Amino acid sequence: MKVLKNEEMRKLDEIAINTYKIPGIILMENAGISVVEEIEKSLASKENKKIAVISGLGNNGGDGFVITRHLMNKGIQVITYIVGDTSMIKGDAKINFDILEKMKAFIVKLESSEDIIQFQEDLQQYSILVDALLGTGLQRTVEGIMREVILKMNASKKEIIAVDIPSGINGNDGKVQGVAVEAKKTITFQLPKIGNILFPGSYYGGALLVKNIGIPKEAVSLIQSKIHLITEEVAASVLSKRYGDTHKGSYGRAFIIAGSVGMSGAAILASKTALRCGAGLLRTAVPESLIPILENQLIEGITVPVKEMLDKGIINYLKEENVVAIGPGCGRSQEFEEILHTVITSARLPLVIDADGLNLLANNIHLLKDLKAPCIITPHPGEMSRLTGLSIQEVNDHRLEVAKNFSEKWGVITLLKGARTVITDPQGQIFINRTGNPGMATAGSGDVLTGMITGLLSQGVEPLQAAIVSAYLHGKAGDRAAEELGEYSMLAGDIIDQVPFVIQEIIRA
Ligand SMILES: NC(=O)C1=CN([C@@H]2O[C@H](COP(=O)(O)OP(=O)(O)OC[C@H]3O[C@@H](n4cnc5c(N)ncnc54)[C@H](OP(=O)(O)O)[C@@H]3O)[C@@H](O)[C@H]2O)[C@@H](O)CC1
Ligand SMILES: Nc1ncnc2c1ncn2[C@@H]1O[C@H](COP(=O)(O)OP(=O)(O)O)[C@@H](O)[C@H]1O
Ligand SMILES: [K+]
């Protein structure tokens, strides 16, 4: 699903209105009605049915006027607050404002500090507040009366439903422009905006619902956005049912180079996951001293000593494999550095580089120019900072751009981990993942992700798809683990335990 910037959403509205001749007021009507449906759902469980719709002067406020009208028609008690000088309302919003006046709707204007004192008192009587102050037209830091109104709405602790995007959140990047509404749910129109998806905007928005407002599919296809939200349908298109007449060889051979003394767990986690994600055959190369531990923990996989790889020739050793992953828990030994160097510059099979593999790479980033095969790197922000020389703060502040620039510069698929993992390719495409939770911020969960990507690549899944689907699957398995065990207690191994159920769920859907 495409994710839009404010300007792109405006362009889409324009195409619908100018090319497809759908009057803007119809789009506004549909937008308002779609929010009313959600208000009714929230209202069903409440005794107090009184609602406040809090509108601005733009089209987001216009949606609010439509919402008021429909709630009135349904016999629901509703009061509209308007922030600012109502003589400034124009266009479709003005038409809807005039209708409300004719309907003798209860309208309160908020223009001064005294009005705010009364507003704060009033808020206690409502069951739901509808936030229709600012949408994709947010231009600058929110100040003055508008800021006061938002602060009072938040302080009221009432359930807030946001129209399109929580007011104060920048649709282009999810950042708070001074202050923002904290909503329980947000109904966004036609397609999500970046600010609905990325943090902190996503946190402020609560549950996100995307509602169609009648813009034709063809119009959507005219918008050239390169940013996509990863959906279950994408995962389902990759994780198809297996064909009956297949065998172990049909699902490929995966090779994982991982582990060091004190970090055998990383090798085990990645390996187990690759098998759970369907790899036909798996070999894991670890330092010799770890072999007994792996043999004990991973009976389905084959374990080989790293030294044997070096003795027999790294490339020769990998010639039957379909994918090689390097890095989880491998430390920064010279042996691994040599393997990484050779694999990057000479191996002709898909490559996944994670964790210490990335730390080793950071010392010698130019090796990537000699890649002979598709490569996926899976840094967390700390590793990305080492790879790029940017600070962690800079990486986190510009997650999409940082990952995109890295992919374009080095010709790799970049999977930048964290809350809202971002995947980018050398063509400038950006995919954002919404699954997952803070319970996954636990040692080893990154190793599980590497195992997933490796398992899918072994089965011939295209590298970009493997990265996208793994991020989705990983987060979804993490969400199930959090549901069962809680975010505090879940461990990386618990994510693996959920993988079979998640895959089955996706295949059956
Ligand atoms: N046909 C369509 O296009 C459809 C659009 N739809 C809806 O329209 C929304 C976009 O509407 P929009 O473009 O009118 O902008 P909107 O979010 O209402 O904000 C503009 C107003 O806010 C003000 N303002 C800005 N920043 C401010 C600040 N920091 N602090 C204070 N004020 C600030 C700005 O004032 P000005 O800058 O002019 O002084 C102006 O008054 C979109 O999110 C969706 O809900 C749907 O109905 C579907 C059809
Ligand atoms: N708050 C969060 N929301 C969603 N996913 C998260 C969150 N915190 C961590 N994760 C995911 O957990 C994984 C952690 O990986 P990583 O930092 O490499 O851990 P480790 O090195 O311990 O294995 C990543 O896939 C990351 O996206
Ligand atoms: K809003």
UniProtKB/TrEMBL annotation:
GO molecular function, one term: ADP-dependent NAD(P)H-hydrate dehydratase activity
Gene that encodes the chain: nnr
Taxonomic superkingdom: Bacteria
Quaternary structure note: Homotetramer.
Cofactor binding annotation: Binds 1 potassium ion per subunit.
Family: Belongs to the NnrD/CARKD family.
Species for this entry: Clostridium formicaceticum
Binding site for AMP: 417-421, 446
Enzyme Commission identifier(s): 4.2.1.136, 5.1.99.6
Listed name of the protein: Bifunctional NAD(P)H-hydrate repair enzyme
SUPFAM superfamilies in the record: Ribokinase-like, YjeF N-terminal domain-like
Its biological purpose: Bifunctional enzyme that catalyzes the epimerization of the S- and R-forms of NAD(P)HX and the dehydration of the S-form of NAD(P)HX at the expense of ADP, which is converted to AMP. This allows the repair of both epimers of NAD(P)HX, a damaged form of NAD(P)H that is a result of enzymatic or heat-dependent hydration. Catalyzes the dehydration of the S-form of NAD(P)HX at the expense of ADP, which is converted to AMP. Together with NAD(P)HX epimerase, which catalyzes the epimerization of the S- and R-forms, the enzyme allows the repair of both epimers of NAD(P)HX, a damaged form of NAD(P)H that is a result of enzymatic or heat-dependent hydration.
Record key words, sorted: ATP-binding, Isomerase, Lyase, Metal-binding, Multifunctional enzyme, NAD, NADP, Nucleotide-binding, Potassium
Binding locations of (6S)-NADPHX: 59-63, 135-141, 164, 266, 329, 380, 447
Sequence ranges assigned to domain YjeF C-terminal in this UniProt record: 231-506
GO biological process, alphabetically ordered: metabolite repair; nicotinamide nucleotide metabolic process
InterPro entries per the UniProt record, alphabetical: Carbohydrate_kinase_pred_CS, CARKD, Nnr, Ribokinase-like, YjeF_N_dom, YjeF_N_dom_sf
